[in-house]
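hey can u check if this looks right to u? its 146 residues, i copy pasted from the old doc so theres a chance i mangled smth
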Amino acid sequence: METISSYMTSDHHRCDELFAQAEATVSGQDWAAIAAGLRAFLESMQHHFKMEEDVLFPAFEQRTGMSMGPTQVMRMEHAQMRELFDAMADAVKQQDRDEFLGQAETLLVMMQQHNMKEEQMLYHMADQALAGEMEEMLQKMRAVVL
C-alpha cells in the first residue's frame, strides 16, 4: 500500500531531477532553455508545496493538535526557498550565470536538509497520525493543481 511517506518522497525525487536538469542547462548559452528548465522546476516545487500546505499539513495539524510543531518549521523553510526561487528567476532574467549558480547552490543545501527532515520525521509522523484516512489523503494530494 502506498503511504504518504512513499508518495511524497517520490515527489521529492521528481523535483530533485527537475532541479538537476535546470542547473545543467546553465552550462549552455540558451537563456530561453535555461528559463524553461527553471520554470519546470519551480512549477514542480510550487505543486509540492501546495500538496503539503493545502492538504497534508492542515490534516496532520488537525489530527495531532500540533500547529506550531514540525509543520510550522516546514512552512518557514518553504518561505525561505521561495525567496531563493525568486532570486534564481531574477538571475535568469539578468542572464547572470554566476548569480544563478550561487543561489542554486544555497537552494540545494536547503532542499537536502529540508527533505531529510520531512522524509525521516514528518512524513512518518503523518503516516501514523493519518493511517485511518491514508487513501483519502493520497487522493486529495493527487488532485492538487496549481
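DSSP finds five helices and no strands in the chain.
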